[in-house]
């Protein structure tokens, strides 16, 4: 089994016909934060804004962009953003 530098699994496994993906290991390998919402038992993958998961953002009040002028912050290009 392939492990990342923190000892987290990177490869999915198949159990009883279902595929399970090691979200923490994949998140670590991609440098993407992974959190668990204890109230809903949901896994949240990706950035949060002011502690709020992006999925909770009201999209009718936001804009979406893949323009590097808008997706680059502190010399890191996030490829696509909702703002």
Give a quick summary of the entry.
The chain has 83 residues and is an alpha+beta fold. It has helices spanning 23-30, 68-71; strands at residues 13-15, 18-20, 34-37, 42-45, 48-49, 52-53, 64-65, 72-73, 76-77, 81-82.
Describe this structure in words.
The chain is of the alpha+beta class and 83 residues long. 14% of the residues lie in helices and 31% in strands. The chain is built from 2 helices and 10 strands. Strands 1-2 form a two-stranded antiparallel sheet. A hairpin with a 2-residue loop joins strand 1 (13-15) and strand 2. 2% of the residues are buried. The mean pLDDT is 77.
The backbone outline, from C-alpha atoms, is extended
Assess the beta-strand content as a share of residues: 25-35%
Biggest beta sheet attributes? 2 strands, antiparallel
Q: How far is it from the N-terminal to the C-terminal residue, by CA?
A: 39 Å
Helical content band: 10-25%
Mean pLDDT across residues: 77
Q: Figure out the total of helices.
A: 2
Low-pLDDT ranges: none
| Total count of strands | 10
Task: Produce the secondary structure layout.
Elements: E1 13-15, E2 18-20, H1 23-30, E3 34-37, E4 42-45, E5 48-49, E6 52-53, E7 64-65, H2 68-71, E8 72-73, E9 76-77, E10 81-82
Antiparallel strand pairs: 1-2, 3-4, 5-6, 7-10, 8-9
Summarize this structure as a short list of keywords or feature phrases.
83 residues, two-stranded antiparallel ribbon, 31% strand
């Amino acid at each position: 089994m392939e492990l990342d530098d923190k000892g987290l699994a990177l490869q999915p496994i198949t159990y009883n016909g279902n595929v399970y993906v090691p979200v923490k290991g994949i998140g670590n390998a991609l440098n993407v934060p992974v959190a668990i919402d204890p109230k809903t038992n949901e896994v949240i993958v990706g950035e949060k804004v002011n502690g709020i998961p992006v999925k909770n953002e009201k999209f009718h009040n936001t804009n979406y962009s893949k323009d590097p002028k808008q997706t680059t912050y502190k010399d890191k290009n996030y490829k696509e953003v909702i703002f």
